[in-house]
Design brief:
The structure is a homotetramer. Chain A is of the alpha/beta class and about 250 residues long. Chain A has a single domain (about 5-215), classed as PAC-like subunit (Rossmann fold), CATH 3.40.50. The longest helix of chain A has 28 residues, at about 215-245. Helix content of chain A is about 35%, strand content about 25%. In chain A, β6 and β7 (about 80-90) form a beta hairpin. The first copy, chain A, starts with a strand and ends with a strand. The interface of A and C includes residues 24, 102, 103 and 164 of A.
Chain lengths: ~250, ~250, ~250, ~250
């Protein structure tokens, strides 16, 4: 395995697809959205991405087998719209890795002739959210205007903000290549996995893309994931003392 | 010395050997098992591995001489079974080093025509262990089934688990090369070096490999190591204030 | 994008220009000074510098569009004096990046035939400043003498001091190339953005360069920035809990 | 400047010199010893070593000029004994840098045909030292025996010890090249710069090398340095709040 290893699982042809990124982040909002889309659309995994910049770990699956930490790209095709969906276990854990991996994602985007990129995430406000809102950023003024028409908010009065990780770099580095890109952030507390915020983001995204999608499954998934999180949090508390010291930890 | 330096001490021929990894980790379980095996089987050291990815330190031996921090590979041959045993002082302390070193271990494994890899470690549960158990993960479903027959537990109901470091990566990166690999984790509190858990892992491993091995020496070693740990812990407490600040520390 | 990417926006010819560096640092003193100069002189941006050594983030502008974290070089020309002004969002966040980026800045300085470099920053004293002072360091004894004549203080009685980051390395690495360079540090508390200290530094710098400049705009800017800082600090407090844990943070 | 830059200031010929390393570390013992030797012997600086692996900073000298963070090698020649003395501002602050820099030191050692290396440091025990002692480690058993005759202690009953940084790696990596090397550690509390411990180490080293040296200057220097340390500590306390946050710090 090299610094980055691209495993092409299947060759597909797509027609100027839209790329949608949903990697782990605040409230896990972006990942929840794209996982729901992959399931509902029966999107097909076509690429796996492995890298030294991901944590040195494997995940144990339900059947007892393992797989390396990785990112994945799914494809979906329809007469009106083609999609490339990017998700995964983790973002880079090195500084340069964020840049290097995002460039690889853009190489793939260009190879498929991507027409536009949407990056999805959460925008933590530090307290409970009363009204679901989606705020945005884009790499061209035209996209800002277009997004506004779909109810995406842009907060002009708050300068100095930044977007960290792949969701931000895909816009910044995408701009260098002339690929239009938008970031949609669901407002969330930032404390917990937030499927409600994910639903708000998905609703806006579907409107923009002209897609219809059953939200019910996401609600179910949301409830299920909340239970998992609760269980993980209990496990984590129990294992916390073990993590002290400088030994490697095996967390199953 | 380069990024990784392989010192071949002796050329040996092995017949489709089984590779067993036991590097430092939770409860030091994996390392305790392989150290016992090396001693009992009189396995012979054939390779030393040095790397920038190990901590920049030397260890002082009983005779006052030093040696660099390193990993080691031992060989053992018998009419029925050949072994390659991987152990060492430390795992990588850089992120990419985990990947790079594991690939080197697999290069060596392939050179010897390894038939199968067992990685050994501890699985910390954060409280005292009442009943000795060995849980597992593997990189093929067939191996999961085979291991189950030897009493290894696979915890289907607990998703989201991961194995960090060489014990995990040897399975994940080994799968990419088509090398079957199993991870055996002794359940342990995670607070202390745990030779009891090591015995449980060794017992299962011997059953799988069809090896007979005196456990008595491990029990003795366990007691002895517990005394060492106690002494080290006292020394560490005494030296703790010295470690504050940004100076390098000399710990003897 | 490579490890460092230099974007030349405009080709200009300058006559043995003076380079002035003001990157983020203690009290933001250096950056405040050069931002004021760029505005007052209507200096023109000629170069953008992108790098893996900057944080992996984009900044959201008032119009909702984003731009990558970067450093920038501005040019200004007059019959008596030409300037190259270096500023930016961040300094390197890796150790080697500080060295690598500073060498790039010096490559650019040499290409333009820079006659002299001034690096600007704050010198934090840990308590409120009663009297505005500017202390200095230089990479030749002649420059020390010259600066003294302009009221820059050199603190001979305090050995062991150091200057960290680009403001220091431009002097040290500049010396290797034979480029005369001075560091001017405005004494500041170190707790807050300090436009008053920036004014003191700018006043000395203008005297040295024989430049006349309206300070009024800096005063206004100072007040405005203080309000921004207050608002940011409140936002930061509100978002602080979200930042715990190991997830990526989206801070707008 | 490259990853490592060797500046040869003067070409000298030495006769199988002994190399003595004294870089910053516990109690600053090693550096105090070699600084005293350089002064007393009027050793001449012949090499400067710069590297990305050192902190990105310059030091301000008494005359207001700066110099880059670096390591230095001094030469001293006499009819009976030639010396190469390695000292400097800092050790590497990256993991791989420790290995890479130590290899460079050994390249230089080999070029001069070094007969033997002594690395000097402190051995922190976490409480006040009542009786000055020097403990050792070496990279051959013969050297251990030889050192014992000069009163150096080797603590056989304390296994598991290690020596971190250049003082350790010069022994470990030196062994790979067949260069005999000894580490002498002055027992010290580990809390403060310890010129008393430095005197103990110097006394043993002089006995081994057959050198006579006035200790009085070291005593004076010790007192002087203790005053400096006190002053630095007060400055540090005053500046501590400034260091919070993620901005670069300018510490003069």
């Amino acid at each position: 395995m090299k610094e980055i290893e691209i495993r092409e699982l299947k060759r597909v042809k797509l027609n100027a697809p839209v790329m949608i990124e949903g990697l782990p982040g605040v409230g896990n909002v972006g990942k929840l959205v794209v996982e729901h889309m992959i399931e509902e659309l029966h999107a097909e995994k076509i690429i796996e991405i492995y890298s030294w910049h991901f944590p040195p770990q494997v995940f144990v699956k339900d059947d007892g087998t393992v797989r390396l930490c990785r990112n994945e790209i799914y494809a979906w095709s329809s007469p009106k719209l083609d999609l490339l969906i990017l998700t995964g276990d983790q973002q880079s854990i090195t500084n340069e890795g964020h840049y290097i991996l995002t460039e690889k994602y853009l190489d793939i985007a260009e190879k498929f002739g991507v027409s536009r990129i949407f990056t999805l995430g959460g925008y933590g406000i530090g307290h409970l959210v009363e009204e679901q809102r989606v705020i945005g950023a884009a790499n061209t003024p035209e996209l800002v205007e277009e997004m506004r028409r779909f109810g995406v908010e842009f907060m002009e009065e708050e300068p100095g903000g930044s977007i960290v990780g792949a969701s931000g770099l895909l816009l910044g580095l995408g701009k260098m290549r002339g690929i239009p890109a938008v970031c949609l952030l669901g407002v969330t507390s930032g404390y917990l996995v937030d499927p409600k915020s994910a639903q708000a983001v998905l609703r806006v995204l579907c409107k923009i893309l002209g897609l219809e999608m059953d939200m019910h499954a996401l609600e179910e998934r949301a409830k299920e994931m909340e239970r998992v999180v609760e269980r993980l949090k209990k496990m984590e508390q129990a294992q916390a003392p073990m993590r002290a010291g400088e030994e490697l930890e095996y967390i199953r």
